[in-house]
Amino acid sequence: MKIVVIGGTGLIGSKVVAMLSRKGHQALAAAPATGVDTVTGRGLDEALTGADVVVDVANSPSFEDGPAMEFFRTAGRTIVTAEVKAGVRHHVALSVVGTERLQDNGYFRAKLAQESLIKASPIPYTLLRATQFFEFIRGIADLSTTDGAVRLPHTLFQPMAAQDVAAAVAEAALAAPVNGMREVAGPAPFHLDELVARVLEFDKDPRRVITDPAATYSGVQVDDRSLMPGPDARLGTTSFDWWLANVPPPPKK
After folding, report:
1. Helix locations, the chain, DSSP H
2. CA 198 from centroid of its chain's CA atoms
3. CB 171 within 8 A of CB 145
4. Exposed (0-12), middle (13-18) or buried (19+): which is 246, by Cβ within 10 Å?
5. With the C-alpha atoms ordered 76, 175, 129, 16, is the resulting torsion angle positive or negative?
6. Quick count: other Cβ atoms within 10 Å of Cβ 171?
7. Distance CA 247, CA 140 (A)
8. pLDDT confidence of 253, banded at 50, 70, 90?
9. 152 touches 211 (CB < 8 A)
10. How far apart are the first and last CA of the chain?
11. Which residues pair with 184 in a beta bridge?
């Protein structure tokens, strides 16, 4: 099949393209760097010509309320128009577990709007919601740092490796549309504050993690249900311990 991966040069997309290519499919990475812009539509019709499946793992360049909403709404409408024109048979999109419970944050309001556009589209679809990635735990620490201390709630979450997210996306792309939502998560739950502390200790980072009931996650007050998947979630196989020992952190910018 010809499968176009929007956001195909990023953390998840590049892995999806590689996995699908190894299985013998024509996987095309569609991103600004490859001449495809889903906001303006530049290069999109050409990329989707002859496509059987479109996978959208692109993210907004801004996490601010207005720009994120504008990105997901505009890109979503542009993609649907191009898919209808090209006769695409399946749209697969990556979203976030707990999106509907995190609506005090503008980015998650934008993700929910994106999901609504996909559901209303005439294209058969699969929505794949994933939990937080192991790869973003260091970023959570950075965003939660004040005066050299990392303040986090003692809330449950069930993060997963980016490789497992990509595998689930690739599998969904090769399966029939479910016209509904599926969840994927890591193999085990953790407390957010404790796992961040373990990563910082591994990195020999001097910052101290302070458990603070008033601390938020992306500006949202969360509880032990907010970030957790449902009972039917598919679980990844990569353990946190293996990931921490074997996947190097990204280079410092």
Report:
1. 11-22, 44-48, 65-86, 106-120, 137-143, 162-174, 192-202, 240-246
2. 23
3. no
4. exposed
5. negative
6. 17
7. 17
8. low
9. yes
10. 38
11. 130, 234
Question: What is this structure's pTM?
Answer: 0.94
Kindly tell me the sign of the dihedral angle through the C-alpha atoms of 95, 98, 103, 107: negative
Gap between the Cα atoms of 87 and 89, Å rounded: 6
User: Does 81 score more than 80 pLDDT?
Assistant: yes
Give CA angle at 79 (74, 80), nearest 5°: 100
Exposed, middle or buried by CB within 10 Å (0-12, 13-18, 19+), for 251?
exposed
Q: What is the pLDDT of residues 21-52, one digit of tens each?
A: 999 999 999 999 999 999 999 999 999 999 99
To the nearest 10°, report the CA torsion of 239, 243, 246, 247: 150
User: Which tokens go with 215?
Assistant: 């601390």
Q: Which residue has the tokens 């801004």?
A: 62
Percent of the chain with pLDDT over 90: 95
Residue with tokens 């679809």: 125
Instruction: Note the pLDDT tens digit of each residue in 156-172.
Output: 999 999 999 999 999 99
Of 72, 80, 13, the closest CA to residue 44 belongs to 80
C-alpha distances in Å from residue 249, one per residue of 89, 143, 200: 38, 17, 11
Burial class (CB in 10 A: 0-12, 13-18, 19+), 241: exposed
What is the spatial distance between Cα 9 and Cα 237, in angstroms, rounded to a whole number? 24
